[in-house]
Amino acid sequence: MTVATVPAHAQRYEESSERGFQPVIRGFNVDEVRRIVPGVELNFDVYGTPGGRVYLQIDGAARNLQLNETEPGTYEGVYTVGTRDRISASSAVTANLRVGNQVTTGVLRESLLAGVGRHQAPQRGDLAVLPRIERFDVRGVDDLRPGNELNFMLRGTPGAKVDMTIAGTRGVFFLPEVRPGEYEGSYVIRRGDRIERATAVTANLRIGGRVTSATLGKPLQLLGSAPPPPREVRYCSNCATVEAINVIEVKGDGNYIGTIGGGVLGALAGSQVGGGNGRTVAEVAGALGGAYVGRNIDRQNDKPAGRHFEVIIRFANGGTQTVQYANDPGLRVGEKVKLNDGTLTRDN
Question: Could you name the CATH architecture of 123-225?
Answer without folding.
Answer: Sandwich (2.60)
